[in-house]
Amino acid sequence: MKPLKLQSSVDFMASYGMGIIIILISIAIIYKIATTSTVLATPYCTPNPGFGCEYDSINTTGGILVVRLSQAIGSQITINGASCSTTQNDTGTGPKYGNIFTTNGASFYPSGKQPGGRVMYSDNFTILYMYCYDASGVAKYPQGTPFSGYVWINYTIQNYVPQTQRVLIVSTVYT
């Protein structure tokens, strides 16, 4: 009789031990994924009222930000320039690094991608390509690194104020 009691005790301990080990391994895997994976972080772009940001991405090699921007201001606008920086200037009215005057200068955009003169109609979109800058120059981070920055759009509204600047807040993950 004693060998049977010992066998049932061993079976009981083995089954509960295996269950506890499986639970601990599952918790470790979930913790590892949750703390190291940026794939789970959803990129977002929060524009000012009247604008929509439908898509944004930034690449690792060139620090090029791509933003699909729409507008619903009710009038056509002409884009005079766009800029991207990780930091605002001291007054919050423009970028601290890079294209600080939000001009259409060719050096601030990938070849052939200058937005100057591009017209956006209400309830329509345009895709903007620009270099993003940080304190060290064009922002280049390893793949999967979260990026937060600001985008300024220098534009003219038809039949309204000659020139205004708006701020778009962008947070995205390098791809």
Quick rundown:
With 175 residues, this protein is an alpha+beta fold. It contains one helix and nine strands; from the N terminus they run H-E-E-E-E-E-E-E-E-E. The chain is 20% helix and 38% strand.
Q: How does this structure look, described?
A:
This protein is elongated. 20% of the residues lie in helices and 38% in strands. It is built from 1 helix and 9 strands; from the N terminus they run αβββββββββ. With 175 residues, it is α+β, with helices and mostly antiparallel strands. The chain folds into 2 domains: 1-36; 44-173, Sandwich (Immunoglobulin-like), CATH 2.60.40. Strands 1, 2, 3, 4, 5, 6, 7, 8 and 9 form a 9-stranded mixed sheet that branches.
Whole-number count of domains = 2
Report, as a whole number of angstroms, the end-to-end distance.
66 Å
- The low-confidence parts are none
Secondary-structure element order, as H and E?
HEEEEEEEEE
Helical stretch tally: 1
Mean pLDDT equals 82
Largest sheet, if any?
A: 9 strands, mixed
Q: Just give the CATH class of the largest domain.
A: Mainly Beta
Give the CATH topology of the largest domain.
Immunoglobulin-like
CATH architecture of the largest domain: Sandwich
How does the overall form come out from the CA principal axes? elongated
Q: Strand fraction band?
A: 35-45%
Which structural class fits the helix and strand makeup? alpha+beta
Number of strands: 9
Share of residues in helices: 10-25%
- Report Rg: 26 Å
